[in-house]
């Protein structure tokens, strides 16, 4: 049995200020980070282990400070060691949105999430990376590279690559025409914690960028881990649009324009996620995300059927029987 030297080092580091504290695994995410719940007496914290040779803590600390300045319920930092890759954070609890969401709770939980999102979108964006053409392209390229080629063994012809790039160009242009705001970049039911006060707690925000106003909204409402009837989603989108306009985050636009923004940036995200889930399996040995491919693919198919300018992507997927190979989930109208 191998010894977990990083956990030993983390425990020693925690004990410097909390000598009787115990550590238990809290969670791991899709990156190299691990989280441990620290308890001493009746008090709890969360320790983050982020190996310095894999990633730096500087973006997490920077974004944390920006969000806390907006009164977002992000974890406060009590102790830090950049050299070792350790942080000790306030404990936002162990109840993510995902298991708590149902037809009765969804309206209340999502309205709270909209309130937090509107606070996030007004955070300081100075010096943030931009969700520019190059980043949007790199993300979407993960789909043909990892989902089609690596996962399904499909190599597109040069004509098919041109068809796909035409759709990508359309999605990039739409993303860049939207109002640009602070974007969490992974704002969904596994990264929102149900809290008694100032619900929700917000985590996993270190990859924040300046980007399209609908990005986090579609991450939340077309979540890769839970789906809702389209009519209910559209009502929530309308609720958010009203609040965002009233708070001056965007100028008034028609419902049709806003829904197109929502659909197009959602498709960009879900194209990326198909690639990420496949890469997590094939490169990182994290096969658990494969079960979420059918819902993600279903979002892609649903939106591409709605807009003629996106039909080339649907044509490619139908040509290679992608839905039959992966499976789909019914999304109720």
UniProtKB/TrEMBL annotation:
InterPro entries: Aminoglycoside_PTrfase (IPR002575), Kinase-like_dom_sf (IPR011009)
Keywords noted in UniProt: ATP-binding, Nucleotide-binding, Transferase
Regions that span the bilayer: none
Record-linked Pfam families: APH
Single GO term (MF): transferase activity
Domain annotation Aminoglycoside phosphotransferase: ranges: 23-235
UniProt cross-references to PANTHER family, sorted A to Z: N-ACETYLMURAMATE_N-ACETYLGLUCOSAMINE KINASE, TRNA THREONYLCARBAMOYLADENOSINE BIOSYNTHESIS PROTEIN TSAE
Name of this chain's protein: Aminoglycoside phosphotransferase
Organism of this sequence: Leucothrix arctica
């Amino acid at each position: 049995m191998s010894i977990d030297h990083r956990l030993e080092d983390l425990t020693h580091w925690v004990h410097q200020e909390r000598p009787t504290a115990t550590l238990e695994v809290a969670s791991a995410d899709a990156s190299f980070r691990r989280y441990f719940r620290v308890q001493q007496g009746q008090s709890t914290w969360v320790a983050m282990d982020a190996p310095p040779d894999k990633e730096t803590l500087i973006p997490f600390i920077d974004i944390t400070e920006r969000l806390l300045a907006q009164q977002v319920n992000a974890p406060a930092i009590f102790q830090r060691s950049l050299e070792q890759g350790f942080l000790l954070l306030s404990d936002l609890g162990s109840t993510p949105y995902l298991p708590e969401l149902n037809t009765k709770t969804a309206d209340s939980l999502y309205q709270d999430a909209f309130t937090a999102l509107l606070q996030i979108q007004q955070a300081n964006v100075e010096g943030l990376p931009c969700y520019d053409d190059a980043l949007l392209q790199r993300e979407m390229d993960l789909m043909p590279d990892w989902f089609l080629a690596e996962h399904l063994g499909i190599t597109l012809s040069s004509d098919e690559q041109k068809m796909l790039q035409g759709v990508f160009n359309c999605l990039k242009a739409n993303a860049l025409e939207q109002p640009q705001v602070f974007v969490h970049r992974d704002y969904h039911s596994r990264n929102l914690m149900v809290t008694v006060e100032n619900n929700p707690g917000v985590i996993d925000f270190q990859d924040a960028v300046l980007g399209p106003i609908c990005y986090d909204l579609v991450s939340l409402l077309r979540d890769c881990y839970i789906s809702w009837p389209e009519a209910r989603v559209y009502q929530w989108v309308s609720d958010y649009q009203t609040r965002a306009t009233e708070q001056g985050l965007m100028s008034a636009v028609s419902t049709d324009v806003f829904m197109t923004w929502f659909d197009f940036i959602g498709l960009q995200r879900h194209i990326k996620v198909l690639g990420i889930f496949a890469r997590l399996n094939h490169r990182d040995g994290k096969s658990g995300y494969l079960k979420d491919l059918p819902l993600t693919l279903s979002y892609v198919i649903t939106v591409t059927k709605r807009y003629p300018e996106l039909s080339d992507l649907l044509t490619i997927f139908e040509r290679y029987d992608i839905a039959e190979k992966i499976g789909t989930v019914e999304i109720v109208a």
